[in-house]
Amino acid sequence: MKLPIEGDPAENLRRALDQIESALVELHADNVERIGNRISFSAGIFSFKRWAGPHPLAFVTSGEIEIEPSSDSLMVDYRLSFKQQFIMSAAIVICATATRRFRVSDKGLTTDLILLAIALMVLALGSAASAVFRFSKFLRQFPREDRAEEQVRG
């Protein structure tokens, strides 16, 4: 993903990293660590602070962001993990299937297992796709203008 910026990308790299790191802390990410041009964080899904509204870290277990300057922009590479969301989706689908299993059914076990697999894929992949969209949107807001710069210009 590219972050378009005004001015020299190499000079704006540190500002973008500082702002992203601060924003992750404000979003209640855990274990935010910055090494060079890379920021890593964890964001377990079992934090209620991350479930209020369309939160950029909802459904994300952990992640890593790496930013490199190019000729006219900052190149962002990020990776997100959804392990806890997958486990939670599996538990929801298994519980729903288990309660349904006690009813008399003329369908076989194979049909139930296929439906279970489809439900798990839809739930887990839908959550992951939503999280990637929100996180990508979150990253596109950087680098922001500093308030001191805005006051000088305004």
Q: How does this model look, in words?
A:
- Strand 2 (30-35) and strand 3 form a beta hairpin.
- Helices cover 49% and strands 20% of the residues.
- The chain is elongated and about 65 Å long.
- Strands 1-5-4-3-2 form a five-stranded antiparallel β-sheet, covered by helices on one side.
- Helix 2 runs antiparallel to helix 3.
- By secondary structure, it is an alpha+beta fold.
Annotate the secondary structure layout:
Blueprint: E1 2-4, H1 9-26, E2 30-35, E3 38-42, E4 62-69, E5 73-81, H2 83-101, H3 109-139, H4 147-153
Antiparallel strand pairs: 1-5, 2-3, 3-4, 4-5
Helix pairs in contact: 2-3
List keywords for this structure.
disordered C terminus, 154 residues, 49% helix, alpha+beta, 5 strands, elongated
Cα-to-Cα separation, first versus last residue: 30 Å
Q: Which sequence of SSEs, written as H and E, runs from N to C? A: EHEEEEHHH
The major pleated sheet works out as: 5 strands, antiparallel
Helical proportion? 40-55%
Tell me the fraction of residues in β-strands, as a range: 15-25%
Which segments are poorly predicted (pLDDT under 50) over 5 or more consecutive residues?
148-154
